[in-house]
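Example record

The entry below shows one chain as it appears in the dataset: sequence first, then structure tokens.
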Amino acid sequence: MPAVTVKAGASAFVNLAVRRKDFSGSAASVLEFSDAQGSRVRVPVTAVSNPVNSYPGLWTGTATLSKVSQLTENGTTPPFAPGAAKETPAKLNLNLILHQDKNGQARLLKQVILMFKDATYNSVGTPLTNGRPVVLTKDS
């Protein structure tokens, strides 16, 4: 990283980021900050690479189709030709609902109901469990 010069009484923002795709497991290092007067601060840092299931939850998005590999023309379907995608007359936007579970398994969903499961309490009103969101789907 190049040196950053900061005048006395001033401040500077330095953005640091971890290139998680460049390693697996965990990594550690020490960042060192120093000045011309001999002051030095060392900061230990650690990072964990992105595990497979790093983004569990309910996701929505859009896919835009602009080419197809098997197109029905004039009522007939030509033989499938891999890699021979043709432009569509117009782009088609598809809304998607995806759910990734805690094990990293992603599923495309047709519909979903998002509910909230209430907390449970003992007889004097002390919470035993926290409330939590619940995703309901029906496999078909």
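Notes for this example: The two ends are 53 Å apart (CA to CA). The first strand starts at residue 26 and ends at 34.
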